[in-house]
Amino acid sequence: MELIIAxxxxxxxxxxxxxxxxxxxxKPASVLGLATGSTPLGIYEYxxxxxxxxxxxxxxxxxxxxxxxxxxxxxxxxSYHYFMETNLFSKVNLPAGKHYLPDGKNTDSQxxxxxxxxxxxxxxxxxxxxxxxxxxxxxxxxxxxxCFEKEVHLVNLSGQTIEANxxxxxxxxxVPKQAYTMGIGTILKARKIxxxxxxxxxxxxxxxxxxxxxxxxxxxxILQFHPDVVVVADRAATAALE
Length: 242
Ligand code: F6R
Hints:
Layout: E1 2-6, H1 9-26, E2 31-34, H2 41-52, E3 62-65, E4 67-69, H3 80-87, E5 99-100, H4 109-122, E6 128-131, E7 153-156, H5 159-165, E8 178-181, H6 184-187, E9 193-197, H7 203-211, E10 229-234
Parallel strand pairs: 1-10, 2-3, 2-6, 3-5, 6-9, 9-10
Antiparallel strand pairs: 4-8, 7-8
Helix pairs in contact: 1-2
Bound molecules: fructose -6-phosphate.
């Protein structure tokens, strides 16, 4: 794992955006694995800005997102479809029909998990997967568990994740209790992984991921076994590293 330390959130976002931009410049037909949440917002702003300035072209890019809440439609403002549309897709020239997310409205979970894993496989895996980190060490919505999930699955969100994500909803009660997520095995199909981490409240999680034992209790720790991982963290998030 390579660790790049940025002074603050903005610098973290810019450095990470440069890595994504380099990927798209070097391979215009890249498959990008994308994440939602607060951490990547600054990255998406930089990518949109560089596109507007003519420095980036997404016309050949395909994107595939990590996860989606179960039961939410793309029109729902809390859905990850809506998040991606608002924060990235509507701001750059990604062709319609070339961005993929799980279908939160599909109640046939077995069929949906199979379909989405097949999407990833038909794309040949991700060239670069962007990941945020949960306070409990989750990546995607792979919550601490007794084993690493191999494939796309429907997951019960942990109380800690519901608590952390309630800021996007009117109350904790409205946060969906389940989500479709790429499994750890799905994520590891990415040839390169970019993990972004910001803030002191993530410091313990980052330490466990980077310096702890590899364990499904800290799902992100599996990244220690991937051959090409870059972590871009702001200084606050590195507070607990030895
Ligand atoms: C989002 C995702 C999650 C988040 C994580 C951190 O698609 O898969 O793993 O990356 O919960 O979220 P933030 O960035 O909001 O702290």
